[in-house]
Automatic annotation (TrEMBL):
UniProt keyword list: Membrane, Secreted, Signal, Transmembrane, Transmembrane helix
Pfam families cross-referenced by the UniProt entry: C1q (PF00386)
Stated name of the protein: Putative C1q domain containing protein MgC1q86
Gene source species: Mytilus galloprovincialis (Mediterranean mussel)
Ranges that cross the membrane: 14-36
Subcellular location field: Secreted
Amino acid sequence: MSGLQTFWSRNRTLVYTVSGLILGYSIAIGMSYLLFSIGQEKGRGNIQNFKIAQLIKDSKDEILNVIRDSKNSTSNEKSNDGTKQGIIAFYAISTRDLDLEFSQTVVFDQVYTNIGKGYNPKTGKFIAPFDGLYRFGSTGMSQSYHSVFLQMNKNGIEVARSTAAQNYNTADMEAILELKKGDIIEVTRRTNSNKQTERLHGNRLASFTGFLIATM
């Protein structure tokens, strides 16, 4: 779509409204001039002159208000991703069982909330869109013959850990972290656990969440 077509599709209502106001503005000036001419003949030129000035001012104010409202509406549409309003939040789950190798990142593939687009469901990693204080949490479940050892990393360094013994036990962890823009948070298999494959129970029983508490 060309730039002109894009502008037209986004601002069609504004163009119609401003055009109508300008037309009405022109008609008002013409009518006022006619009344002014008649008024002068009857000795009321000063009164009609005041009416012309008032009509011009009112029409100008109306056009400016329409333009201002349109800009505010466009600004709100651009803020729907949340980042310009300071809202960052995500919630994702794993829909399938995962056989985790040594230090493997857990990919939570189904996303329910991702305001700000900080979480990537293809990599399982959250990348901070700007500096701030964040809260993260994760839960998982073991299967019948597999214990699960998990950890949460900030830029590859462990900041929290959890363990779920075999036979469908749960592993939960959370962290409140000060992040810089571009910092990476992920959930992985524990780096110092044994090297045999560990199976994380999926079926919506493993989750990864996070949200911005405050900007800094």
